[in-house]
Amino acid sequence: MAHVTLGLLTVTSKHEHHYLTETAKMSKLYDIECVRFTPGAIDPKTLRIDGERFCTKSEEWQTDNFSIPDYIYDRCFYNRKAKKEKPIVDWLKNYPKTTFLGYGLPDKWTLYQSLKSDSTIGCYLPATTLVQSPNQILAHLRSHSNCLIKPRNGSRGVGILAIQLASNTIKVTYHKGRDKKTKNFHSIKEFNIWIEKLIAQNDYLLQPLLQLNDKQSFPFDIRLFMQKNGNGQWELVEKGIRKGYKGSFLSNLYSGGETINYSEWCLSLSNKQKTLLEDNLQTIVSQLPHILENRFQRLFEIGIDIGYAQDESVWILDINSKPGRKTILTTSPHLSNRLYEAPLAYCHYLSQQSLLKEPN
Predict the structure, then answer these.
(1) What is the pTM of this model?
(2) What InterPro entries does this protein map onto (predicted)?
(3) CA–CA separation, 213 and 232 (whole Å)
């Protein structure tokens, strides 16, 4: 029987099934046992879990009942339906017998407030304010003619709005999955009523609408995928490009984006442009993970979304502690085994570290 158990935690039982199964297939390399469960499957009285255990012989998941595992890899994403699961996961993070591979990051506003004062990273962050009233948005529109508002808690581009003021019309553009929608308001009053209802439901952040399109007017961003290796050291696993469709302002895959190999995309840059961009990316990669862990809690992986504007300025658009792998797996399929193995290698490292700390 393996002496270390790694729990793969998801909000629904089959979420990321392929990825987590491929990871579990490699568990015998590290003498780690993999179990899979949802937060709601924990019995609060017995602290036993109805979940699944991975059988390395049959390479299948089998229904089982087990105690809370030693280590947990948290892949929970909280939409409105899953909000009740979050307090259970927060409780698990404080459970003394369990160690999480990574403890996640706070919301976008808390993150911005913490990072904006950093002398290295602060200059890469778009100016951000918390939306308090429609007047705040209108004042920005009158000064700059456009802006972006995004939910304080959000992912995959859901809820992000691009707002533009032209003559006497305010145009709001947003995505519903792959479909781009627009609303036109022909009076300030009409816009105020609509936006007031929206900001009453959620906290929103206000940012400039950066010009993040390529020469053909397609929006794009650069995904930096970072993980800790089997020695507990941060590594840049790969860079990939996500490109949206013409007329869109989002490039993430959920909103209809496609992936492009980073090296191929770089062919469109001059040597000078590439050198300057790489220099900026190297600064972010070498500094950001350590700053985040110093200010918050331990992390295992992060996805950093980088905007590269038409004036060649570089922006950190988003930092995600539960990054997807589609961009990297699509553009660099040769890295698939490395991605599947990484949680096990880092779990093994943490278990070895804990053995070293035990008194003789």
Answers:
(1) 0.92
(2) YheC/D (IPR026838)
(3) 36
